[in-house]
Amino acid sequence: xxxxxxxxxxxxxxxxxxxxxxxxxxxxxxxxxxxxxxxxxxxxxxxxxxxxxxxxxxxxxxxxxxxxxxxxxxxxxxxxxxxxxxxxxxxxxxxxxxxxxxxxxxxxxxxxxxxxxxxxxxxxxxxxxxxxxxxxxxxxxxxxxxxxxxxxxxxx
Length: 156
What we know:
Elements: H1 4-20, H2 44-47, E1 55-62, E2 65-69, H3 72-80, H4 94-98, E3 106-113, E4 116-120, H5 123-129, H6 133-147
Antiparallel strand pairs: 1-2, 3-4
């Protein structure tokens, strides 16, 4: 009985966060429940130098998307300055954005460049992207102004 209240409170919080994030915009690569980065911790790329899965109990909502964190410290850092940790192009594939499309970014295929987090859809795509990172970032930045507010299906 002691454990029922905390468990119910945690479940209620999770449902509330998921429900509030159902409106994540088309500019953020989030699941239909609003989960961004497939549940990976955005801060870990910068502090740990590697992707880390977030804990479902350590979350925050930013721009109508739910972000999970491996530690309370990571959550606090994100909440203090989310723009410092958010993936570029809303977490969509950086190479895809350079080509004018929105493909899922895979949190396991990433790179921090000049203090910014970039994701790619797969290892072979990332291998192409790293051949001209500055050129692809320039193209993606230009394209993002046009495609950010379009649904991925509108770009096919």
